[in-house]
Design brief:
The chain is α/β, with parallel strands linked by helices and 321 residues long. The protein contains nine helices and ten strands.
Length: 321
């Protein structure tokens, strides 16, 4: 069955999926080729409007990681900050491809967005991307203006959201500042692949079961029992308490939907404040499809949720242990 015909998906996205059905799946390409292919497709999804932000680039750490910085124009310091981690199954994607969404976040949530290019698998498999994210988090605290006075949020989409929430759990056991909030867009939280949404949306959408298998093969390689490794499958962590408040945004027509809901429930059961929003007519990767008005509107709601997350944490002192 062609899942692009599901009535719950916004009509413009259904049309996009029908066109995309004539393209080969990412899993048919070597990762370097897949990256170029997706970067080319991303250029067709840039919205027409220009965002009122200034963009600069920093290179940080011993590996000279690229950080793309978006600062809203006309704002006054001190500004809150978001460390943003792009999606792409830890194998593809970049801060350049996620530029429209991160610029939108900076403008509409009135914060500085630091979008990181962590190193990608298979050249840099698990846990190297996590190490890069930790490096960026340390750098952010040292280089964001008046960082000790403002909320510092960490977040991302898909694989990037997974990295964000895993780092939050890791930092909980370390000295130093923990993020003030988690901004998670359709995170991958389990490798068990046993949910109803895995069955319903396994084929025909942007993210398929075979694509996930392709990503995991490159990212985790020979890791045994990844479902039991909380740094790969955070849903199955033994302890999710004392994590920062979270916003979790999910697409209803997404193979990852059910595990996103389960992760929100697990966080709540552990005492973590969670704002969960499911976008009923969206698909995975909608925040990268901003040339489509329905996807743009949903992404703008995510930006509003980020602003509210910042407001909820702004009255709290920076977390240190």
């Amino acid at each position: 069955m062609d899942r692009s015909d599901h009535h719950e998906i916004a009509p413009a996205l259904r049309r996009l999926l029908r066109r995309a059905s004539f393209l080969p799946g990412l899993e048919r390409f070597a990762p370097k080729v897949a990256r170029r292919f997706m970067a080319l497709l991303a250029k067709g999804m840039v919205p027409r409007r220009a965002f009122q932000v200034d963009e600069t680039i920093q290179h940080i750490g011993p590996n000279r990681l690229t950080v793309r910085v978006f600062c809203p124009r006309g704002s006054i310091e001190p500004r809150p900050a978001l460390l943003y981690l792009h999606g792409g199954g830890w194998t593809i994607g970049s801060s350049a491809e996620s530029r429209p969404f991160t610029a939108l976040l900076a403008e509409q949530a009135s914060c500085v967005v630091y979008s990181l290019d962590y190193r990608l698998a298979p050249e840099h498999p698990f846990p190297q991307p996590l190490s890069d994210v930790a490096t960026a988090w340390d750098w952010l605290q040292q280089h964001h203006p008046r960082a000790d006075e403002v909320p510092l949020i960490i977040g991302g989409d898909s694989a990037g959201a997974t990295l964000a929430t895993v780092l939050c759990r890791r930092l909980r056991h370390q000295a130093g500042r923990q993020p003030d909030g988690q901004f998670l867009i359709y995170p991958m939280t389990s490798t068990k692949q046993q949910t109803a949404s895995y069955q319903r949306y396994a084929q025909g959408l942007i993210l398929t079961r075979s694509t996930i298998d392709y990503f995991l093969r490159h990212y985790i390689g020979q890791v045994k029992n990844p479902a039991a490794n909380a740094d790969i499958s955070p849903l199955h962590a033994d302890d999710l308490s004392r994590l920062p408040p979270a916003f979790i945004g999910l697409a209803a027509a997404d193979i990852l939907h059910d595990e996103g809901v389960a992760y929100a429930q697990a966080l709540r059961q552990a005492g973590v404040p969670v704002e969960l929003q499911v976008f009923p007519d969206m698909i995975h990767a909608f925040i990268n499809l901003l040339a489509i008005s329905a996807a743009y509107d949903s992404a703008a709601v995510c930006a509003k949720q980020l602003q509210q997350l910042i407001q909820r944490t702004s009255n709290h002192a920076p977390r240190a242990h």
